[in-house]
Design brief:
By secondary structure, this protein is mainly α. It contains four helices and no strands. The protein has helices at residues 2-9, 19-41, 46-198, 204-319. The radius of gyration is 66 Å and the shape is rod-shaped. It starts with a helix and ends in a 22-residue tail after the last helix. The relative contact order is 0.11.
Length: 341
């Protein structure tokens, strides 16, 4: 009977107890073993066994109450430490996370994107501007080459006109003596014929004198004709040279006007390109304002959501520290039912 009683109150050895609960279990086990040894030595003394059983039950109840009190104090202390640590971690995370992880990274990413877009617009403008300058540089180069060819053509044309004038004047100077000799013979024959008609009573000496005077006059007239021809040639050559110079000046003026028009056109195109870039940059900045505003609103919304989340999480964790959604768990404590009582 004593063996049945002991078998009915035997409990398994507790596992994982710490602190006061572990020491009380060791004391109770030692007492049970000592009393079992004493009872096993006198199985025939049933009355003594009943007294010992009652004493054992009383001591077991006392030990169990002490153990429960120790476990309750330990759990309360653990809960307080856990709530304090959770509040500290939640507050620190609440201060650091929005500023460092979410807001700063998003702002840095958006700022980098805006800077990249602005740099892209600047680079595109510079590229278009450089392309336009290169294009007009090639046009100026081609225009100068064409002007050089036009000037060479004009020089060749003037030189050809001068050469033609010189050849024509040379031919005129060559033909003039022949014409003068032919005219002189004709005029001398006509003078002699008229002299015979008009001066029938003159002596031969008088006729010879008149013919000599007529020949001197003819010589003077031919000389005047040669001088007149020479003066005429000089005037013609001077006029032609002036005309050539006027042609060259007119061509140069026309070429300068073309160059000036090209430079004005280039300046106008560059100005229009700068205005287009300024307008495009202005439109981009106007579109950037609502983007910044939307981003700030998004940041404010996220901050508000995080504040609400951390507030609700902190309240729930502090009110129910044994929930399964805890951030961390401290010191696992075995349940009371694992003691076997």
């Amino acid at each position: 009977m004593a063996a049945d009683v002991f078998s009915s109150v035997r409990t398994p050895t507790p596992q994982g107890r710490r602190g006061a609960g572990a020491s009380s279990n060791r004391a109770r086990n030692g007492l049970m073993n000592r009393m079992k040894d004493d009872l096993s030595q006198a199985p025939h003394e049933e009355g003594v066994a009943q007294v010992m059983i009652q004493s054992f039950q009383l001591s077991s109840c006392t030990l169990f109450n002490a153990q429960m009190q120790d476990e309750q104090e330990f759990l309360q202390k653990q809960q307080q430490d856990l709530d304090t640590a959770l509040k500290k971690i939640i507050q620190q995370h609440k201060q650091e996370l929005p500023a460092n992880d979410t807001t700063m990274s998003s702002k840095a990413r958006e700022a980098a994107m805006w800077e990249l877009e602005e740099r892209h617009l600047q680079e595109k403008h510079q590229l278009l501007k450089q392309q336009l300058k290169d294009q007009y540089f090639m046009q100026r180069h081609q225009l100068l080459k064409r002007h050089e060819k036009e000037m060479e053509q004009m020089q060749r044309y003037n030189q050809r006109m001068i050469e033609e004038m010189k050849n024509r004047q040379t031919q005129e100077r060559t033909r003039l003596p022949k014409i003068q000799r032919s005219d002189a013979k004709t005029r001398m024959a006509m003078f002699k014929k008229s002299l015979r008609i008009t001066s029938a009573g003159d002596t031969p000496e008088q006729e010879r004198e008149k013919i000599k005077q007529f020949a001197a006059q003819e010589e003077k007239r031919q000389k005047n004709e040669r001088l007149h021809q020479h003066q005429k040639h000089e005037n013609q050559m001077r006029d032609l040279q002036l005309q050539c110079d006027a042609n060259v000046r007119e061509l140069q003026q026309l070429q300068n006007e073309k160059c000036h028009l090209l430079i004005e056109h280039e300046t106008q195109k560059l100005k229009e390109l700068d205005e287009e870039h300024s307008q495009e940059l202005k439109q981009w900045r106007e579109k950037l304002r609502p983007r910044k505003k939307a981003l700030e609103e998004e940041f404010a919304r996220k901050m508000q959501e995080q504040e609400v989340f951390f507030k609700m999480t902190g309240e729930s964790e502090c009110l129910n520290p044994t929930t399964q959604s805890r951030i961390s768990k401290f010191y696992p404590v075995p349940s009371v039912h694992s003691t076997g009582f």
